[in-house]
Amino acid sequence: MNVIPTEIPDVLIIEPRVFGDDRGFFMESYNERAFAEKAGITQQFVQDNHSRSGKNVLRGLHYQIQQAQGKLVRAIVGTILDVAVDIRRSSPTFGQWISCELSAENKRMLWVPAGFAHGFVVTSDVAEVLYKATDFYAPQYERSILWNDPDLAIAWNVDGEPILSPKDEAGVPLKQAEVYP
């Protein structure tokens, strides 16, 4: 696999080795030993999640203030723009974000470690997203940062207004959000 660093050193783009022929393709989407050796990802994954969304659905920016989750994200149908925001106050990249296109075609994955808010927007007609999480979902600790916080100025590249859940509409700006030390 190929590990691509991003502008935020802890966030990584992972390109798996894909073996294809006229029958289709095969790839290892996760191998504990390879991820540890090549990407330094040694966290244990305890939960797998799967979502399906239509075009312009924007999910995020989510995080859990306790039971923080690292996430290994990939799109298995369609295309998304995936975003990670550093919300670790002691980090030199606090308040910075990166984005990456993940698609069924490019088979890339994004490693979003604990300490980041995460979200994505669907740029194809439909997308299915799978992600592995390093801690269990705990709704009592879930928080949401406003997707269009002007201080973050995330370039979502949404065609028109995004489709949001009530929870995401009620997100708060980073300046008012609970963040990690």
Automatic annotation (TrEMBL):
Keywords from the named record: Isomerase
UniProt-listed Pfam families: dTDP_sugar_isom
Source organism, top-level taxon: Bacteria
Pathway this chain belongs to: Carbohydrate biosynthesis; dTDP-L-rhamnose biosynthesis
GO MF annotation, one: dTDP-4-dehydrorhamnose 3,5-epimerase activity
Catalytic-site annotation from UniProt: H62 (proton acceptor), Y131 (proton donor)
Site (Participates in a stacking interaction with the thymidine ring of dTDP-4-oxo-6-deoxyglucose): Y137
Entry-linked Gene3D superfamilies: Jelly Rolls
Protein EC: 5.1.3.13
Coiled-coil segments: none
InterPro entries: RmlC-like, RmlC-like_jellyroll, RmlC_Cupin_sf
Catalyses which reaction(s): dTDP-4-dehydro-6-deoxy-alpha-D-glucose = dTDP-4-dehydro-beta-L-rhamnose
Repeat listed as a keyword: no
GO CC annotations, alphabetized: cytosol
Listed GO biological process terms: dTDP-rhamnose biosynthetic process; polysaccharide biosynthetic process
Keyword check for Isomerase: yes
Assembly and interaction partners: Homodimer.
Family: Belongs to the dTDP-4-dehydrorhamnose 3,5-epimerase family.
Function: Catalyzes the epimerization of the C3' and C5'positions of dTDP-6-deoxy-D-xylo-4-hexulose, forming dTDP-6-deoxy-L-lyxo-4-hexulose.
Protein's recorded name: dTDP-4-dehydrorhamnose 3,5-epimerase
Organism field: Oscillatoriales cyanobacterium SpSt-418
